[in-house]
Amino acid sequence: MCGISGIFETSPSGGAEELGAVVRRMTDTLVHRGPDDSGVWVDAEAGIALGHRRLAIVDLSPSGHQPMFSADGRFGIVFNGEVYNFQSLRAELAPLGHGFRGTSDTEVMLAAIRQWGLAEALRRFVGMFAFALWDRQERTLSLVRDRLGVKPLYYGWAGSALVFGSELKAIRAHPAMRPEIDRDALALFLRYNCVPAPHSIYRGVFKLPPGNVLTLRSGDSRSAAPSTYWSAREIARRGSSEPFPGSVEDAVAELDALLRDAVRLRMIADVPLGAFLSGGIDSSTVVALMQAQSSRPVKTFTIGVHDAGYDEAEPARAVARHLRTEHTELYVEPSDVLRLVPKIPEWYDEPFADSSQLPTFLVSQMTRRNVTVALSGDGGDEVFAGYTRYSWARVLRLALGVPLSLRRGLAALLENVAPSRIDEVAGWLPAGMRPRLAGDKVHKAASVLRLTGSEEIYRRLVSHWQEPTAVAVGSAEPKNVLWDETLRGELRNFTQRMQLLDLVTYLPDDILTKVDRASMAVSLEARVPLLDHRVVDFAWRLPLAWKIRGGTKKWILRRILYRYVPRELVERPKMGFGIPIDSWLRGPLRDWAEDLLDERRLAADGYLSPGPIRTKWAEHLSGRRNWHYLLWDVLMFQAWKDRWMG
After folding, report:
1. What is the set of active-site residues?
2. Which domain holds residue 347?
3. How far apart are CA 577 and CA 357, in angstroms?
4. Do 105 and 141 belong to one domain?
5. Phi, psi (5° rounding) for residue 538?
6. pTM: predicted TM-score of the whole model, two decimal places
7. Which has the closest alpha carbon to 276: 389, 388, 367?
């Protein structure tokens, strides 16, 4: 796992020393992503400079140093990530005449590209990656991002030069870069609590979308556009039209084998390795498959909080005890989390407001004290239908058959009951049936009753600020795939459409961004076996009834987990990996938030409209409503702006 940066001047003008100094300055901003080594390579005549920071995982020797060139000198690369099947590719390439100096996956990638070309090599790679490939012969630069978007890659223009980097701070370090907040992207952030690809918070700077390649050659203009080499949408369409032909038992056996291989490949490392363990279905499955293939106890890590609604330590401990892992847990106090809040804009150098960023950082920090690589269960909800909204899809479709006037009447009745009162009533339910923030969820359901179509319902479910352009001053919200009506013709089932939309938006833009920045902030490599593209491909071929059965989500994944862990240890209500931001904003975070939400300050900045924000803040402080998600969005933007645009 590493950090990359670079410059490509399509009209070369600078000298080698100047170009090298600039790319070195860019690369030095990424030292947390690669503390073990650094490298810069420059060809001033071609206008190309590549920079690399290395976190040594496979082949710890100098032979793994980057930038690295192919044996024939044609291809140069800076690479962030891992190609897990490099050993089998190497065995295939060696008889074709390729020799290898070391044992790194980077060297195998270059040989594969030399042998088969970039397009065919990408088809063969199993991994997570973001890399820049320079072709000396064709004088082309190709930027590549992995299929699911596990690894980040930003690019933009600074004068006549294309600049790129693993994080925005690298791009900002180019002296010709003049960062300007994109108000349209700000509106997107307020809706989704992150800035979705291909946008970034800066005007003219972009995220390379997952499964895409951007290729430029000398003299190219800014009009060059990315092209897709792998499409989750196409995989979903093909999977639903060409379903798995065998029985459910056949599917369980094949999925078990696929997952075992995905986990096995991600256990290859020349440094200590472990896993995050929450005690839920996804992480427990990953750890169970790790332990089944390990000759020694797997190192597992969990953090806990002294709040029953958020604590994952106890169920994780039970799973660890059953699997006999070497388990480490850390209970954190609110003060441990609160002291991190001012540091968030440093890790996430773009506004990002998923509050589970804080516990994710803490578990990464604890894990890094013991290992350099950690496997994670992320992706299971999107791939195997684990989110609560998927179970409600049938109910929502039935509700749309009720006359709109009746639905709106019921919505008004529900909205007249204060969320705090609903929370009190829910408190009488048995602990296992008691939903967290029941009042907010009832009010959200009431708002859904007012809607007229399934796509509109999905947008409501995933949106924070419902009218973000009313809050982001001078913005016009770009419409993305969530407004694409043609998707209905490709996937007729509403739940499958929700799954796909989550897979191409929420997963890469929120979940994977959160894990990447939190883990890389402490130089920890996080690997996600459930997002092996072969697993994703296979899962789309399975009937939805094998993923959600009788109200049980991730049914087929549970069937595999039960082979290793008794169901009573993992059967519990789904918990998010969160913290009680709602109460903290009324308590220990109140003064910090009040300063950032000051009406005069908001008005003077000119980016956010004070009126709706102050209304939400007053209602939240009074306890009448819980607006912590929306307020956290604003607070994270304000904190980010203070750090990066002050």
Report:
1. 2
2. 233-385+494-570
3. 9
4. yes
5. -65, -40
6. 0.94
7. 367
